[in-house]
């Protein structure tokens, strides 16, 4: 009788250990499935001259091309005749499918000079200062002198002078 109980306990122990191993493997597989794709770190850098104090805004668009005003990023600019580096960094929890840059909210700012735009995603430069214009379209609130980069700002509409991302921008943000 003792041998029978001993055999029964040994078999029970062996089957229990095997079940725990299978459960452990299943949990590992489930954990692998649940791992989310890492969020993108997106930074837009402007090299610009603002003669007067102003605010620059980075607008974010969702999959349906709706602007997410609750996700916009702002940067105050102190007026100066010198080039300024203006960084607009999106928080990592924001999924951007397109962007727009509102260059001015100061209605007395008649001009500003945009030297370049650089975009960095996860520490990699994806839009360089050389070719930034091919990723944006400007709205009718700006008139640009291509040779100098000087923009005349028009503040007579309900929306600010801005560049909006085009299809090439969407493709960059999609990758």
Automatic annotation (TrEMBL):
Q: Specify the domain of life of the species encoding this protein.
A: Bacteria
Q: What is this protein called?
A: Lipoprotein
What organism is listed for this UniProt entry? Flavobacterium okayamense
